[in-house]
Amino acid sequence: MVEHEGTGPLDLLTWSFSRIAMWAPFFIVMIILYEVIMRYFFAAATLWVNEMSLWVAGGIYLSAGLYAMQQRSHIRIFIIYDVAPLWLRRVFDVVSTLCVSVFAIAVIWGGFGESKAKFLRFETFGTAFDPPIPATIKPLVLTMMMFLALQAISNLIRDWPSTAWVRKTFDILVTALIVGLAAMAAYNLFIDPPEGHKVPMKWQIGIAVFLLGSVILVLYGLFKDFNRTPAVHVEIDEIEEEAAVYKQQMGVGDDIPDEILTGNPPKPSPTEQQK
Questions:
Q1: Cβ contact 145:102 at 8 Å
Q2: Please, which residues have CB within 8 angstroms of residue 150's CB and are 6 or more apart in sequence?
Q3: Distance of alpha carbon 152 from alpha carbon 138, whole angstroms
Q4: Judging by beta carbons within 10 Å of its beta carbon (0-12, 13-18, 19+), is residue 35 exposed, middle or buried?
Q5: Per-residue pLDDT tens digits for 201-229
Q6: What are the phi and psi torsion angles at 233 (to 5°)?
Q7: What is the pLDDT of residue 249?
């Protein structure tokens, strides 16, 4: 897959944190390998590997969905979309974006109270290792749903493409929203924390780093790409995509060998056929 170009504050934020999440599967493989060695070679099984792998895998799953949305690589059915005229395709795009947004709002609305309660009492898993999976994954689900809806709207605005002022207005509003939510979270966590909260200091520091990093990324993305016109995203199949990569890498024109386009072995020459 050719990675889709990211422009603007939201794409930069999604791309940056997805890059970090891409290393998480390697971390899971390494700790499971450690568990196997300790269990079968030293008869000293761990208490933490299984739950740590579940914990990290949950974060990977959520971030992968957001990255797939930014890359336009989620599963879509084109049997009707491809034969529809342009105006009807745009209607489909708007309807699908509305469905994603309404679903995200419903999930956030229904789960906010429970998520807040789990986080403030820093609910743990209740096992020997006792990781704070409920206190972290539940808020992460709502956070990713919010960014998923914003990313769907961003894709819609950039893929038509829209006029510059619509894109710039959206980028400013998204930046203001993220900065405002980060400031609100920092105020409630550090300046005026709710009564009875049990969030450990090390987690507060980690959340502060996450919030600060998010603010820096969105501000940098806003100023970097504010006057940049994003390239229009065009859906192409895998063969066309591979052909485009081959042209770019080899510096050739449209004369691409048939075996490159189709994957079939090269046809033998007449001389080779006679032999």
A1: no
A2: 10, 174, 177
A3: 21
A4: middle
A5: 888 899 999 999 999 999 999 998 887 77
A6: -80, 125
A7: 65
Instruction: Indicate the domain borders of the chain.
Output: 8-72+87-225
Alpha-carbon distance 226 to 53, whole Å?
Answer: 39
Distance CA 262, CA 255 (A): 14
pLDDT at 176: 95
Gyration radius from the chain CA atoms: 24
What's the whole-number mean pLDDT along residues 55-77?
A: 87
pLDDT 10s digits, 67-97: 888 888 877 777 888 788 888 888 988 999 9
Task: Please list, in sequence order, all residues whose beta carbon lies within 8 angstroms of the beta carbon of residue 137, skipping any fewer than 6 positions away.
Answer: 55, 58, 59, 62
Residues 6+ apart with CB under 8 A from 143: none
CA atoms of 271 and 269, how far apart (whole Å): 5
pTM for this entry:
0.79
For residue 115 the two structure tokens come to 């998520």
The answer to whether 233 and 159 have CB atoms below 8 angstroms apart is yes
Among 89-103, 134-148, 201-215, 233-247, which stretch is predicted with the lowest mean pLDDT? Answer: 233-247
Q: Please, are residues 160 and 84 in contact by the beta-carbon 8 Å criterion?
A: no
